[in-house]
Specification:
Elements: E1 12-14, H1 23-31, E2 36-38, E3 42-43, H2 44-48, H3 52-55, E4 67-72, H4 76-90, E5 94-99, H5 104-107, H6 119-132, E6 137-144, H7 152-161, E7 167-173, H8 184-193, E8 198-201, H9 207-217, E9 221-224, H10 226-230, H11 234-244, H12 253-270, H13 276-290, H14 297-304, H15 310-327
Parallel strand pairs: 1-2, 1-9, 2-4, 3-4, 4-5, 5-6, 6-7, 7-8, 8-9
Helix pairs in contact: 4-6, 6-7, 7-8, 9-11, 12-13, 12-15
Length: 328
């Protein structure tokens, strides 16, 4: 069994999200209580080409352990070779296979959730990687391609037989994208039937909901995605609720802005996105996510859409906090 599932633990995963869960954001979420990290997904073919732009998605630091690198593709032999290269470079704690991504550019290459329609190919990919690499292999799936082909139970059984050591299940079909509600009944059925840890994912936005899903679905862990984008404090809030049954006080406006500014400074220091202007352009979507739930969020997003420097962002923060204090 993977060590983070021992001793009746209930780990909180940060979901891998393209363009979101880079080294900086993972660092912040780890500090706030996330237990297990998974990198942004990376193309196996890109790794084999030794593409520096692709390789940077596999970067992590040791403080983020346990951490896995997530691969997508449809050729088991090539994916196993890419996984071995990653292991040589970085020695992650596990390799995760993406069988859940719904976006067209991945599905059109027969990757991500497209393999849910082809269980023999899915088995070949998963089994080949599990046999060829020296570290644990896990997988992330959706409950099916569409409402007419919900096959998560079959897929979970197939992946178990192929040597997957844990399986994360997003409770939506590929056709749903991120709309509608996650189907936790299917996740619960998989958790009951599976002999490996099942990680539930979908619509987890509070400690109370996470406890409810743990207790009613019987999952061994949860994976938090979109809510963490806007509110990374969800990890510490969930841990507190699971431990005490009580909610923490709301995060103060000052603490929210302190994290936003720190995120931007860390992004600049990472040099991942280039100079300050390009880094702040890359940060705009992250700032938009942080604005969710904040008073006057629409006006804030209008300013975030134009932000081009750290000094400008610090000015926005100062103006916002001054207005907030005057209105209090």
């Amino acid at each position: 069994m993977l060590p983070w599932f021992r001793n009746d633990s209930f780990p909180l995963y940060l979901a891998p999200m393209a363009g979101v869960t880079d080294v900086v954001f993972r660092t912040l979420c780890k500090e706030l209580g996330a237990d297990v990290m998974v990198t942004e997904f990376v193309s196996a073919e890109g790794i084999l080409k030794r593409d520096d732009r692709t390789r940077k998605y596999t970067e992590f630091n040791d403080d983020q352990r346990p951490v896995g690198v997530q691969l997508f593709g449809a050729n088991g032999t090539n994916m196993a070779e890419a996984a071995k290269k990653i292991i040589d470079w970085k020695q992650p704690d596990f390799i995760d296979i993406n069988f859940g991504c719904p976006v067209n550019k991945v599905v059109s290459k027969n990757g991500g959730s497209s393999l849910l329609k082809d269980c023999p190919l899915l088995a070949d990919v998963a089994g080949t990687i599990a046999r060829e690499v020296s570290i644990p292999v896990t997988a992330k799936i959706r409950i099916g391609w569409d409402e007419r082909s919900i096959n998560a139970l079959t897929v979970v059984k197939t992946l178990e037989d192929c040597g997957m050591q844990a399986i994360a299940i997003h409770g939506r079909t590929r056709s749903q994208g991120y709309s509608g509600e996650a189907n936790w009944d299917v996740i619960a059925a998989c958790a009951q039937a599976a002999s490996v840890p099942i990680i539930g994912n979908g619509d987890l936005d509070s400690g109370a909901i996470i406890q409810h899903r743990r207790d009613t679905a019987g999952v061994d862990a949860v994976m938090i995605g979109r809510h963490a984008m806007a509110h990374p404090w969800i990890f510490q809030e969930a841990k507190h609720f699971l431990r005490t049954g009580q909610e923490l006080p709301p995060v103060s406006m000052e603490d929210r802005w302190a994290l936003i500014i720190r995120h931007a400074r860390m992004a600049l220091a990472s040099n991942r996105y280039g100079d300050e202007r390009h880094t702040m352009q890359a940060m705009r979507s992250r700032l938009m996510a942080y604005s969710r739930g904040l008073p006057a969020g629409k006006r804030l997003r209008q300013r975030f859409a134009q932000v081009a420097s750290l000094l400008e962002l610090e000015g926005i923060a100062e103006d916002y906090l001054d207005h907030h204090r005057q209105a209090a």
